[in-house]
Amino acid sequence: MLQHKIQYKPYAEKDFTHLKGLTGISDKTLEMHLGLYSGYVKNTNALNEKIIELTEAGKSGQPEYSEIKRRYGFEYNGMRLHEYYFGNMKTGGSELKESSPVGRLMTDVYSSSEVWKNDFTKVGAMRGVGWAILFQDPITRTISNHWISSHEEGNVAGFIPLLVLDVWEHAFLLDYKPSERGKYIEAFFSNIDWEAVDARVLK
Predict the structure, then answer these.
(1) DSSP letters of 17-44?
(2) Dist CA 117 CA 115 (whole Å)
(3) Shortest CA distance to 190 belongs to which of 67, 63, 23?
């Protein structure tokens, strides 16, 4: 048994209700999606509390503790990736400028933003549920597009998410058929807040 309590600050749910009126993504979908996000925040906090309880009781490493630890990455990344996703959108979107920080990186790596977009869109259209993410390598400062499954599988250690697209079916099924994921991705592009993406770029 531990003699001192473990300090823990619960995660707070962020307010993304200002995103109502997105192009091609209905308010009903947004409401449902924000409800799912809320669940990830609550589950992350619940897992942290249980881990602390077991640790303070001297039960670290026991089967229950181990399974909670394994589950933690799913819930925590589910919370964080949704915050990146909602955080890189705004009603009406904005224009991607070739001269912007992310625009210059796209030109340097992919030759143009159009070539980058085609690659990113193809990643997002891959079969399965998950995420398409534009990452920046903090060491080389270069960018690359990646597929992430189940929130915690496929994340590149240390890479910084610049643009995050949720392609789990709950993100679009109220508005599009399963075979119309491409239409959802185009709608997503209409809502991207490129200034928010630029703010994530390491200079």
Answers:
(1) GGGTT-TTS-HHHHHHHHHHHHHHHHHH
(2) 5
(3) 23
- Those residues whose C-beta lies under 8 Å from the C-beta of residue 151, and which sit 6 or more positions away, are 73, 74, 75, 77, 78, 81, 131
Q: What are phi and psi of 138, to 5 degrees?
A: -70, -15
Phi first, then psi, for residue 15 (nearest 5°) are: -95, 115
State both tokens at 34.
Answer: 């924000």
Structural domains of the chain ordered from first start: 26-87 (1.10.287), 101-200 (3.55.40.20)
> Which token pair is 16?
């993304």
Q: What is the pLDDT of residues 95-119, one digit of tens each?
A: 999 999 999 999 999 999 999 999 9
Beta pairing partners, 134 = 145, 163
Specify whether the CB–CB gap between 148 and 133 falls below 8 A.
Answer: yes
Q: What is the DSSP letter of 93?
A: -
pLDDT digits (tens, 9 = 90+) for 62-92: 999 999 999 999 999 999 999 999 999 999 9
160, 60 in Cβ contact below 8 A?
Answer: no
The tokens 């991607």 sit on which residue? 96
Q: For residues 55 and 68, is the Cβ–Cβ distance under 8 A? A: no
Answering whether pTM is above 0.90, one says yes
What is the Cα gyration radius of the chain? 19
Backbone region of residue 151 per phi and psi (left: phi > 0; alpha: psi in -120 to 50; beta: other values): left
**What does the alpha-carbon distance between residue 136 and residue 142 come to, in Å, rounded to a whole number?**
6
